Predict the structure.
Amino acid sequence: MSKTVFAAAAIAVMAMAGSAAAQQPASKLDEILARGHLVMGTGSTNAPWHFKSADDKLQGFDVDMGRIIAKALFGDPEKIEFVNQSSDARIPNITTNKVDITCQFMTVTGERAQQIAFTIPYYREGVGLMLKADGKYADYAALKAAGSSVTVSVLQNVYAEAMVHAALPEATVDQYESVDLIYQALESGRADTVATDQSSLAWYMTQNPDRYKDAGYGWNPQTYACGVKRGDQDWLNFVNTALHEAMTGVEFDFYAKSFKTWFGKDLTPPQIGFPVEYK
Amino acid sequence: MDIPAFLDQLWLARIPLLKGLGVSISISFLSILVGTVLGVFVGLALTYGYRPVQWIVRGYTDFIRGTPVLVLVLASYYVLSTIGIDLGPFQAGILALSIFCSSHVGELVRGALQAIPKGQTEAAKAIGLTFSQTFLYVLGPQAMRQALPAWVNTAAEMVKASTLLSIIGVAELLLRTQELISRTFMSLEFYFFAGFLYFVINYSIERFGRYVERKTAVSS
């Protein structure tokens, strides 16, 4: 008798476990495919990453990364809805399911990686130095040799002084409150060089061709990657595949065209033959 | 400051700026409207409610008034979604600002009602008016006159608080302005212009308040 009860109970438990496994929530990937469009979180106030064109359309390198993923999902880079979010909202909007993915110049750090899952990187940011094309100093070596007579304009920041001194130990550091002012300082001659993110410099030089040049030195590396919710390996794998193939495979032209538009540089196509990943 | 270049950019950006202005005005208008209606009930409950009701409403106003608006905005956008109420940024923003507005208006209404001498209520009772009649014909109009200047102040605060919705991605005037600055690098010029527009909105509210004050004034 007790054996029968036990067997019945065991069957019931197994049935429950079975149905629980069947009801396991499907991956975000299936959810997005069923919905018919991707929901990506990004900002709207940082050129050349995510900003509005003169006719009020969202554009930039982050935006293009979203389009690459949308194209991988639906064969159509337009099947994407952007959620406008501030930088502070990047992680909360992922963890509370407001967005499927966030691509918003997010620096990969160990602290953040505990809260969200990072995709593979799509850009490596670093600080660079911009000079006037016809200025007194030719390149980084000349700036360094000039010692304390060089004035560097930089965005106001607690770490600004230390950041500049890591590359130019003796330089005079002038801090300004906004991006337009650091460029203005260089233009008016109050500063000899501007130190800020290389992507910002690249964009500014693309906007003002032949007036400025890069000093040819970069430091303070930071990795930019998209973020998704933790615990959904299927979705993470899909995004990784899409981004990886944009940088090395079928969508390379899409990626390279975007890179050229926002950073003004031509990329050499990945070498054919042995995969570049293992070189 | 390069004025012609700025005017050029301003003209180019007129549509996004007008849209932002429109969103800012609708946020302010809706939250002042909802907040005022709710606030009148809060004020009534604070003044005439039964003891337990008074305690609950007092807790509500004290809690809301003691919380920064930004926290309310973030809470209605994020915390509500964890219990299944998924509001868009615009709705969440209106909710937060309306609740904030209602707690302030509630206190204004309470103060105004309590400032009316007791004799008024007693006289109304003596001639046989019901409670709602007393409020509508005797206390309400007097309280409104009393609360109006402070209400104008609260309304102007709400317009200023609407800028906080840019944090959760509502494309109101401030966010639109920041979008323009990121493209044009003209921070001083565009922030100044946005400041001017906010001043115009608040000045209009103030003029409207003065107008109503004049219309409702008792000639002495």
